[in-house]
Amino acid sequence: MRKIIILEGKQDAAFVKALAPDVETREIEIQELGGAGKDAIKALKIALTRVKNDALLKPVDKIGILLDLDPADFNEASKLAFVNAAVIDVFGIQLEEVGHFCEIPDIEARLACHFISPNLDVLLKQIAAKSSLRADCLHACLESQTHIKQKEKEKAWPLYYMRWDICDVKERENGAKHVNFSHTYSKGAWNLEAPILEDLKAFLALF
User: Fold this and answer.
1) Greatest CA separation found in the chain?
2) What predicted TM-score, i.e. pTM, was given to this entire model?
């Protein structure tokens, strides 16, 4: 039966598909929110409502919500409360803890959530598999800029790494095609066997 994982954006989707390459054979649909910061509760409600309505015609077995923790804005308890604000509004039920399923009687499905801590951008830096001399140098310059938010600095490192350490000159000319997780993963840029990924893999294995 169908399973759905709701996540933040295209890079998250590419990452999950690489981490769990059998998603299609397991009938797992990946749905993107287009970001899920502290003001994205409306987007999450819309996504869950769409799943609920679709389930009336195409039954769903399991639903997963996979978001960045973003500790600048949340701790685990407040992020769970953020998710529950949408879950309660749409399904009338509440998730009691992260990583455990809760029944949704209205559509006879189960729902669980997981948070990437602190966020996918930092996680990618931690699993980089090749030299990152150029990214580190560029990022060091960025770190000295006190007017730039920490979250923006974290987002910059994977982009620097993919563009300047992994892609060659020709690939950089078409950044939209090559400066992304999928292409750079094909060039060995990321270590998906890193122990830090075990919790996320365990969550994906639930589906």
Assistant:
1) 54
2) 0.93
In 3-state terms, the chain is what percent helix, strand and coil (to 5)? 50, 15, 35
Could you tell me if 62 and 108 lie in one domain? yes
CB 104 within 8 A of CB 110: yes
The strand order across the sheet containing 102-104 reads 28-32, 2-7, 60-68, 109-116, 102-104
ω into 59 cis (within 30 of 0): no
Interacting residues of 44 by C-beta distance below 8 A, sequence separation 6+: 6, 33, 36, 65, 83, 86
The CATH number assigned to the domain holding 76 equals 3.40.1400
Helix (H) or strand (E) holding 28: strand 28-32
Residues 100 and 28 in one domain: yes
150-160 vs 133-143: helix crossing angle, rounded to 10: 160
Per-residue pLDDT of the chain (207 residues; tens, 9 = 90+): 899 999 999 999 999 999 999 998 899 999 999 866 666 889 999 999 999 999 999 999 999 999 999 998 899 999 999 999 999 999 999 999 999 999 999 999 999 999 999 999 999 999 999 999 999 999 999 998 999 999 899 999 999 999 999 999 999 999 999 999 999 999 999 999 999 999 999 999 999
Containing structural domain, residue 56: 2-119+196-204
